[in-house]
Amino acid sequence: MRRKFVAGNWKMHGSLAENQVLLDALNRGIANLGQIDCAVCVPYPYLFQAQNILHDSSLSWGAQNLSQHAKGAFTGEISATMLKDFGCHYVLVGHSERRSLYGEDSVLVAQKFKAAQASNLIPILCVGETLAQREQGVTEAVVSEQLDAVVLLCGVEAYSRAVVAYEPVWAIGTGKTASPQQAQEVHQFIRRKLAARAATVAEQLRILYGGSVKAANSNELFTMPDIDGGLIGGASLDAEEFLKICSSAH
Ligand code: 13P
């Protein structure tokens, strides 16, 4: 039985003062939710703050990106071991904003995935198609290519220490959520595809849905058989809303 998991992706939002309020509220709220896995992926400069506020909380924290390199002359980059220094459990890799705005291709994303695991971080691998790709009927081919790059570099067993997030690009920040059936179709495809190589790994893999998830639609999404939780953008910046989403995964 897979345990549901809800992660917030703050993207480039927050300040010391705002985070203090948000994290305090989440800290209090999460304590009442019982056995559920939740995390927030915060901007790098606020990892220290997250660690200070959440160290005794069941809410975990992580980052939104990392370098594929372990160390060296890579100005402006952040390594997996640095993230571990600040108590991160998770790191997003291959978010569609990184792929589209910063030119990260699936090979680079797989290298980041590998670097994360080498430091015992759990990578949350984001996959998903654009609207044009969906309309061309190539959703499965696009998602396959994104998943296969990791299999090629790390082997399929690497998915036993990772989370996958299906985020259709057309549903991110648009208010346009994939219907539970549309999302389920792709989640089932992902699981079956990996199951063809490693049945147990696929059965245990948590596959999150992301894209305009809010408290009003999370319940319906999370009851689909292959949807194991959510990756939440905008709604994760509002404590009450995020806690409601976490509790609907309970
Ligand atoms: P929204 O929930 O704001 O649509 O963002 C989704 C997302 O990109 C999470 O990584």
Proportion of residues in helical segments: 40-55%
CATH homologous superfamily assignment? Aldolase class I
Count the E strands.
8
| Overall geometry | globular
Q: C-alpha Rg, in Å?
A: 17 Å
Describe the biggest sheet?
A: 8 strands, parallel, barrel
Overall pLDDT: 97
User: How many structural domains are formed by the residues?
Assistant: 1
CATH architecture: Alpha-Beta Barrel
What class, by secondary structure content?
A: alpha/beta
Strand/helix succession: EHEHEHEHHEHHEHHEHEH
What is the CATH topology descriptor?
A: TIM Barrel
Helical segment tally? 11
Task: Give the strand order of the largest sheet, numbering strands 1, 2, ... along the chain.
Answer: 1-2-3-4-5-6-7-8
Bound ligands, named by name, code or SMILES: 1,3-dihydroxyacetonephosphate
- First-residue to last-residue Cα separation: 13 Å
Fraction in beta strands? 15-25%
Provide the low-confidence segments as ranges: none
What top-tier CATH class fits best? Alpha Beta
